[in-house]
Amino acid sequence: MYFKELAGYLERLEGTSSRNTMTDILADLLKHAGGTEIDEICYLILGELVPAYRGLEFQIAEKMMIAALAAAYSTTREEAARRVAARGDVGDAAYDLARDHRSLGKRMTVAAVYRAMYGIAEDAGEGSQERKIRAMASLLSSLDPLSAKYVARIPLGKLRLGFSDATLLDALSLMVTGDKSGRRAIERAYNVTADIGALASRVKRGGLASLSRLHATPGIPIRPSLAERLNDINDVVKKAGPIVGVEVKLDGFRTQIHVWREKGGVHVRLFSRNLENTTAMFPEIVHAAKKLPVQSVILDTEAIGYYARTDTFAPFQETVQRKRKHEVAEFAARIPLAAFVFDVMYRDGTSLVARPFRERRRHLQDLLGRRTGAGTIRLAGQRLTDDIDVIKAELTQSVNKGLEGLVVKNLSAPYEAGSRGFHWIKLKANTAALGNLRAGGAGGRIKGLPDTIDCLVMGAYRGRGKRTKFGVGGFLLGVPGRDERFYSLSRLGTGMSDEQFRELGRRIKAHEVAAMPKEYVVDKEVAPDIWIEPSLVVEILADEITRSPRHSAGRGRDRRGLSLRFPRLVRVRDDKKPHDATSADEVSSMHRRQKTASSK
Ligand code: AMP
Fold it and tell me: Can you say how many angstroms the Cα of residue 405 is from the centroid of all Cα atoms in its chain?
């Protein structure tokens, strides 16, 4: 396919906010794509070159792109910068410049453009900035205006077509079966090998049948299993029992550890909750993983600052310092880290995803049992019980230790990759549950919310009163709907410290956009002064979910949506992508359960 044709599809995708229309356009594109280019096309339309787990970054700042535009279209950097500022978008500016320059472009194929972009991304080291600018300029000058528009956006992460992997999975089904009947099989495969490009190539070449042979593979992340919430702790045994596995919920970084031996070498890759490659962040885990007595293994763990001598865990604020890319060694020395292993999905050539948890746990004991007391990779503790009083006592104990709560597990469940369900139930300490338990009231029944809610920051209101000094006076929060659009849920204002205000105000700067993103559903009444593209997720604690005519999340036939009472910022969740935020459906279901709980 010529890149110009792909640009035509991108232009159509940009022009719609209807998920059905997007799915149709994508399915048409995928049908037209050849078997050897479909993977590259999938990555490109998601604004990337490789799946996130490979961790290839362009390392191109807007300033560099402006320099490339200037060189490509024989103008000055000042003029190119002026055009970008005037249009508020680097892609639109590239389009104008290419048009004025009468760039007709060569007929470059998708593969040729992809190769050129890949070369630019890979170039590193001394002098690479200048080389990247030159190569980008040369690529842009070979393209027609529409192609230039999209090629200029991708390296800056500004493609933003308003859909995510979920829509692409639907489109793949449409491509291969003509309807959505293939979606389940495709999603199952994607859950255990989260590489959408590789998956698309496979479906294109071998059809749906080829997916049944697809299993977890060391080196390719598995989509993490997620935990369900519960309002009434008394229901936990009924939902996951009769005997359940009770584990402490540690508050660190979800870390998937992959180890495999190949050609005499041992390879380790670590992935975060949103499947990014975090191998470079945790050298001591990599070091310990290499020593595991396995041919190959995939482990699910929580990495957390841990002081073995006193058996205490670092609070999240301390563990999080490990995220700084440049001071890994220094922080590794200061904050010792341990990965607490709570699941295993693969061992020595065999996928364990479909095996019951009690069997997977036996594998863990076999593999790590003797190491429980020492080392960087440790077996997470677990208590088996069918007694609700034991669970309540464990929760209280976990709370008293300053931990997040518990995860209660169904021993018969498979590893539910990519889905939230009662196979894992989280009982959290930082919610109203805590108050009830501490006060000994309501027998552990929760009156407020059983969990925090992760929201997208959609925009900001200009400052009023004492907070003007921060530049903004509050934020608009939203949650994703089933159609992948974002619906407003609440304002966030007073429930923040000055420090948090300053940080959030600073963090949104890079993501401001001139107009409301097309995938937002926000009533005029609550429209913020500043719009922010979908990028930043924050964890919010609230007293209650209420009905509201102003917000669009969970809006029913009576036109009333849902909102939060007394929202407070817990923290920014860098480990979550916008579509990983709590969904509008989940908020609705929490609202319904809140009503049943209070009427009990
Ligand atoms: P959620 O992400 O909201 O579904 O809550 C589950 C999260 O708790 C996981 O993503 C892990 O990061 C964390 N966690 C901590 N300890 C455990 C454990 N023992 N089992 C499962 N998840 C755990």
Answer: 23
